[in-house]
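Hey, resending since the last one bounced:
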Amino acid sequence: MKAVRLERIRRVLVIKWSALGDVVIASALMEDIARALPHAEIHLNTQPNCVGLFAHDPRFAEVWAIDVRSKTHRWANSLAWLKKVRAGRYDLVIDLQRSDHSRFLLALLWLTGGAPRIRVGNRGGFPYTHQPRVRDPEAHAFPMMQSVLQAIGIPTPTAHPVLHPAPERLAAVAAMRAKHGLEEGRYVVLLPGAAAAHPLKRWGAARFAELALRLHEEGVQKIAVVGGPDEVEDCAAIARAGDYVVNLNGQLQLLDIAPLCAGASAIIGNDTGTAHFASAAGRPLLVLCGPTDPRRVKPIGRSVIAVQAQLPCRNCYAKTCSNPDRQACMKAITPEWVAARLPELVAGDLTPGQEWPGGLRTF
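The structure tokens again:
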């Protein structure tokens, strides 16, 4: 396997389709690619619902999407994808997908003589020219994607997502913070949501409301609550805890979340896509995990800690709870425990591998 001469690479295609949280994680690798190849023209192929995340991203000369997984136009769109990549005349393709679909398309390109000269991907094997060291589909997405870049000699120092909101949105978030008195380092952001289809991932509005009260009593000036359409009722219930709670439900775009969190002393939330956007702020973030494996799902970043109760039924990934003590995994994480850990989280003293009474463990 020949070493890649990065200085000779002129046109690059990065493939990252989904899921949304994985795309956000991949933005850290996109930063590493851009830094290693400042002389190259870099294109990003993503899914239609992700294109807007990169509308103001200076790292890419082009961001394009063709829905090759469409149930009604899958073959037509796949042909369009093949034509688009062939016309791009890329020197290098970096495939950050975790499925075989992109590998199948790249194999077709190779068979028809239109594949980029250097090809590397998560899955390894044919038709890739370079093989990543980490190829475990059960591993966290981040080290797998890092291994892809390392296989072709690209260093991977970036530890958290890097996203580029529109300048006017940065101004809008700054105005929002000023309006609600969210002073630098004097507020905590709560992320109480999770997709409506995954209710077991939610800690619950009542626990978040109790946590907000405890934090305020311990000196936190304001509590900002962030959610989307699925969390309207939960955010409203938490806001009823007191006038120190700022309910921002429905007022933020996805790329607004990191700028909002950048001034927070800490962020606390469920295992939700919103937490991945929040991790881009680089602030202390505590993720409350129940039915999902924190080793696989937690956002990336040196200041990100996940906590989970070590019950026999953990990591079930179920949508309905079969435990007689319903949601015992989330009940074990109490508002009292979370409030007590906040100073340690902020100070960097809450670290992975710690164990606590009640079977709690940090990751």
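The mean pLDDT is 95.

Sorry for the duplicate.
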